[in-house]
Amino acid sequence: MTGADRHASDAFDPAGTVARARQAAADAGSLEALGELRGVLLGKRGELVRAQRALGGVAPEERRRLGEQINSARAEVEEVLAARQGQLRAEERARRLAEERLDLTEVVDVPRRGRVHVVERTRRQLEDVFVGMGFAVVEGPEVEDDWHNFEALNMPIAHPARGMWDTLYLELGPPESVVLRTHTSPVQIRLMQRERPPVYAVMPGRCYRRDTPDARHIPIFHQIEGLVVDKGISFSDLAGTIETFTGAYFGTDIHSRLRPSFFPFTEPSAEYEITCTICRGAGCRTCSQTGWIELGGCGMVDPAVFAAVGVDPEEWTGFAFGFGIDRCAQMRHQLPDMRVLLENDVRVLEQL
Ligand code: DAH
User: For ligand 1, atom 7, which residue shows the shortest CA distance?
Assistant: First the structure.
């Protein structure tokens, strides 16, 4: 054993090392400082590692004793560091809690109240108007089969009129057999399958189309469908119902008009338009200077639809209509862009 080695091992004083570590840990004022101290005490240049390295030059009988001393000193230092870390963490947490303390009795503003979304409110108002006119409210599924959404509505497979709706299909069953309903008209079918005439019902609900959103279209929107089936129902009943509804919902200075159109499930068919609520009929950008805004379609139920659900067209006649709830909300609140209804910006919703 050389003199230098003897010196190194002699110099290792476990009690002193631990005592110094204890003092330094107590002096460390933050978790960060403690982390640094750990590096110093247990790192390459620390007394423990140095003593460990010197072990190689120590006589075997002494090496074991010294090795045990080093190990237990290291364990003690680790314990000291862990204890101090726990203390510092608790102190830090207490400080943070004090800093972030929120005195709730200081909050003078009462939390703001939420409200029903304008589209939902519009649906309820539309239902109210129709219930007042003697209609029942009926609902149907948003996931629909091809037969209810198209076929029973007088559009056999591959019928060109299916192109009027940009349809979203679900990967369920055979290809293109299940759709997200493109309109509320399939609920007419479900209702007539279930109940015999006379029928007076409105059917509100969500619909889906593969559409790019713009100022007047959103791909997830709402419609309200109407269906009347009774004896001796004529086109003038349809026109009268639509005009009564228009005045009741939009105000008596707003009128309706029906323009010839085509739908596979009605004959004759019409487009339902109302006086533009923004210019009151004078002509503006929103109505393309026409003074009228299209809300939806309507017509006399086609005998082929009655045939699909087993209603005798010789005995019963009826009319149907379907229009956009979101479009109604847009017109009633004079919204230049329908997309705000989907964006849910509270600053906008609060005004509606
Ligand atoms: N389902 C049609 C659509 O989404 C609207 C419609 C037109 C509904 C005529 C009807 C109707 O009930 O008779 O475009």
Answer: 297
Phi-psi region of 269 (alpha: psi -120 to 50; beta: other; left: phi over 0): beta
Whose structure tokens read 């009774």? 230
pTM, rounded to two decimals: 0.69
Burial of 67 (0-12, 13-18, 19+ CB in 10 A): middle
- Around Cβ 110, how many Cβ atoms within 10 Å? 6
Q: Distance of alpha carbon 118 from its chain centroid, rounded?
A: 16
313: which DSSP letter? T
Answer whether 320's CB lies under 8 Å from 299's CB: yes
Query: 281 CA distance to ligand 1 centroid (A)?
Result: 24
pLDDT digits (tens, 9 = 90+) for 272-305: 999 999 889 999 888 889 999 999 999 999 999 9
d(CA 234, CA 186): 22
pLDDT number for residue 8: 45
Q: What is the DSSP string of 166-201?
A: -PEEPSSSSTT-EEE-SSSHHHHHHHHHHSPSPEEE
Distance CA 157, CA 173 (A): 16
Write down the residue that tokens 């009228």 correspond to: 292
> What 3-state DSSP class applies to 314?
coil
Q: Which atom of ligand 1 is nearest to the CA of 266?
A: 13
Ligand 1 pocket (Cβ < 6 Å) reads 183, 185, 225, 263, 265-266, 296-299, 320-322
